[in-house]
Every structure is written in C-alpha cells, then in structure tokens.
Amino acid sequence: MSGLPEHTEYGLFADDTALWTSSNTTSNLSSRLQQASDAFQSWCKSWKLKLQPTKTELVHFTLHPRRKFNNPVSVKIDAVTIQPTNSTRYLGIIIDKTLNWRSHIHHIESKIAGRISSLRFLSKASYQLNDKIMLNIFKSIARTILVYGYPILLQANDKIWERLQIIQNKSIRAALGLPIYTSVEYIHQITNVPKIKEYAVSLLQRHIQTATSNNDNVLKNNLEEIFNPL
After folding, report:
1. Please, which residues bridge with residue 89 across strands?
2. Shortest CA distance to 152 belongs to which of 91, 87, 209?
3. Residue ranges covered by each domain of the chain
4. Torsion of CA 160, 161, 165, 166, to 10 degrees
5. pLDDT for 90-148, tens place per residue?
6. 29, 23 in Cβ contact below 8 A?
7. pTM of the shown model
8. Contacts of 44 (CB under 8 A, 6+ apart)
9. What are 43-82's pLDDT values in tens digits?
10. Are the beta carbons of 204 and 150 closer than 8 angstroms?
11. Residues facing residue 9 across a β-bridge
12. CA distance 41 to 223
C-alpha cells in the first residue's frame, strides 16, 4: 500500500485492514493515526473503495489501561469520530486493550460449548464407541478452534494456556464418554494426544520448516521471533 506515513504499519487480508502506530503522547498518537487514516482513505478512493466508519474500531494499547487521559486517542473517518473501545476482532482473534486475551478465551469457550455437547451426544449414541474415530472428530471440530491464531496466543502467559488445556480436557472427556473426574494424566496416557500448548508449539515448528523450505525468509524470521523465547 502506497502513501502511508513511515511511522505507521498495516496489515491487509481480503477486506479487513489494520493500521497501527505508536507514540509517547496521546496527542501525537492521534495525529499519527489521523495521518495514516487520511492516507488510507485516499488509497481506497484511488481503487474506488469506501471505508465504513460504523465498521471501524480503535483500540488504544497502553501500559496504563486504567488511566484517564486528558487527550484521549481518537480518529475521524468521513467526519465520524472513532473513540477507543476495549477490544476488537481481527481475523477471528479478539484483541483487548490490555492484551491479556481473556476476551478471546471467553469467545472460544462460547464457540466450543456446542461442539463439546455434540461430542458428548455422539459418544453416548454410539453402539460400539470407537475411540480413534471420536478422537479424530475431536481434533476436527474442537482442537482446531483451540489452536486458531496460535502464533499470537503462544505469546500469552501460562494462565491462558491453562484455560485452553481445561477446555481440551473437557472436549476429550466428552468425546470418549469419560467421567468428569478422569485425571488429565490418564487422558493423555490413553489417547496419546499432546497437551494443547505442546501441540501449538509443534505446529509452529512445522510452519518454520515449511517457510525455510519455501525460502520465505520474512515468514521464517517472524515465526522464529515467536518460537525462540518459548
């Protein structure tokens, strides 16, 4: 994308766009965002596209999320002032202003609840329960939700992964018709299913290898930045 100020970075995927920048003052931050937004609007007009202010959201990430600023960050799109919100959804990931990922975990819990119920129903309805088939169904309809966006979530703290592990445990118990008191150790022993964070790390390693094979150094370097601190 041409025309954006050097102080602003962007991400594009289909019709979803994200702009981000930083500054040590809110007034300068608003100024930078406005410059970037104006430049982006000009770029859109050149391609006969139009921004929708009602679908535009602003999140202010700060080291002091509870602080009341004298000059809150804002930006105008077509004369509509966009005020900061507590969280936003980008490419299926709920990003909150404190980056604690709790909102995203709540979203996962809500989304996966029905699938856990489906696993429980299938396990009870099966005349001769086939553990291998049920585990494959679990991997297809439940685990894929848990690890969606894993490169981002791998940068979250262990409490987030503990929550995700609890959800995986519930899913496997439901799939195999196991009682609620079945221990986590026993679940992994009989299923050979790795813990959810271990699985996410293995996916990351696999994608690093793929990027290396494809000589995609940009992707490889970005993924390694996530992997190295783990």
Report:
1. 94
2. 91
3. 8-94, 101-227
4. -20
5. 999 999 999 999 999 999 999 999 999 999 999 988 777 788 999 999 999 999 999 99
6. yes
7. 0.87
8. 50, 51
9. 999 989 888 899 999 999 988 877 788 888 999 998 899 9
10. yes
11. 20
12. 31
